[in-house]
Amino acid sequence: MISRIDLRGDALPTGGALRDLLPRAEFDVEAALEKVRPICEDVHHRGDAALVDYAERFDGVTLDQVRVPAAALTRALQELDPAVRAGLEESVRRARIVHREQRRTTHTTQVAPGGTVTEKWVPVGRVGLYAPGGRSVYPSSVVMNAVPAQEAGVESIALASPPQKEFGGLPHPTILAACALLGVDEVYAAGGAQAVAMFAYGTESCAPADMVTGPGNIWVAAAKRYFTGRIGIDTEAGPTEIAVLADATADPAHVAADLISQAEHDPLAAAVLVTDSVELADAVERELEPQIAATRHVDDRVLPALRGKQSAIVLVDGVEEGLRVVDAYGAEHLEVQTADAAAVAQRVRNAGAIFVGPWSPVSLGDYCAGSNHVLPTGGCACHSSGLSVQSFLRGIHIVDYTREALAEVAHHVVTLAEAEDLPAHGAAVKVRFAGEKNSGEKSSGENGDGKAPRP
């Protein structure tokens, strides 16, 4: 059902050597890049016509227009199951509570008398959000992308999601309903690399965006890589991952259910249990069989994911060693189900999001914890964060020095410019004091302190 990796007994290796021992899905974005390049450039040159052609080729639909009519958004919300609407509304409410607290404020630092540096935070002007529509439909991803962008103050927000044949070429109605609920009224029936290209280059119906965020398949990830530099991106999202750090106190039924919950996303989804308890490992394996039998998507997602090289039960000598393993792994989602789980969780350095104890499953974070579920995958949690308000903000430094403040530090600027063989840098300071003794050069002149004279 799921393989085992035994890391007990010998001293654990460090760094890359430990990472190489751990399971990981193969996700070759570089190979996909060559395949998406012509698609992206076709959208660049042909605009909406290319998008219509790719909708027919990849999605089996014929589009009259790429932009979703406003009436379709309104209708989707009106026809949405009331229970689903209530769930989405609560998801939005909780996400706003958390993300509103992430807002940054302008701060001014006085570096010297008359010299200040102010850091102001400015939202990007326009973002393109992507909501997947392949094996599953994710209105929750609409929430997780739109809420932080809105709370950051982004003025122009558009969203793309693949056209669906069964819905007349429109994106899935729950995607449209979520957009309507959030007030996102610019929506496009476009998927894959072509949707990213639409946002990067712009087309007749869609203005170009400054940034594109949201999870997608390997073609979306490859297109994001292709356009990095032209647009900002959140991350090259790969297959979803869950790691569970557990000891003998964990409930095997909970652990098994949580592993399955991520395995149902995709056959490449990773499910990893790290434990120092062989008894727990055995019990989890026993729990997997009946729980899998009771769920859906077994043959096409769950079993391939659990049996794949990306999933395993990793045996370690203790929780200390387990912490080293999960830090080396850098999971998208990490559950800590140990004794004193809160304290153990505080010691984790590398994870997209951490779920503490038996009552904080990853599923809660997917929908209604208030946290964001757009998270780094493939070990990128070692250096990257999940989507947040900060993702949509840019910090800009405003430097404001008086004549006196510049004069006080001028000799240092000139000295450092000369040390880097950039004399014009120093000259740009000295010219401001032309005709004055020392002119910003270090000297023991009349002021006796080696500084350019103050006026």
Describe the structure.
The chain has 455 residues and is α/β, with parallel strands linked by helices. The protein has 17 helices and 14 strands. A six-stranded parallel sheet has the order 1-11-10-9-12-13, with helices on both faces. Helix 9 links the parallel strand 7 and strand 8. Helix 6 runs parallel beside helix 7. The chain is globular.
Provide a quick synopsis of the model.
42% of the residues lie in helices and 16% in strands. The chain is globular, with a radius of gyration of 27 Å.
Regions with little confidence, pLDDT below 50 for 5+ residues: 442-455
Helix proportion: 40-55%
Cα shape: globular
Radius of gyration, in angstroms, nearest whole number: 27 Å
User: How many strands?
Assistant: 14
How far do the termini sit from each other?
A: 80 Å
| Beta strand % | 15-25%
| Class by SSE composition | alpha/beta
Output mean pLDDT.
Answer: 94
**Count, helices:** 17
Major sheet strand order: 1-11-10-9-12-13
Biggest sheet layout? 6 strands, parallel
Topology of this structure?
Elements (H helix, E strand, L loop, with lengths): L3 E3 L8 H5 L9 H18 L1 H12 L10 H9 L3 H19 L6 E6 L2 E9 L2 E5 L8 H14 L3 E6 L11 H10 L4 E3 L2 H10 L9 E3 L4 H10 L4 E2 L7 E6 L5 H12 L6 E6 L2 H16 L4 H10 L4 E4 L3 H11 L1 E7 L3 H6 L4 E6 L5 H6 L25 E9 L1 H17 L3 H8 L25
Parallel strand pairs: 1-11, 4-5, 4-7, 5-6, 7-8, 9-10, 9-12, 10-11, 12-13
Antiparallel strand pairs: 2-3, 3-14
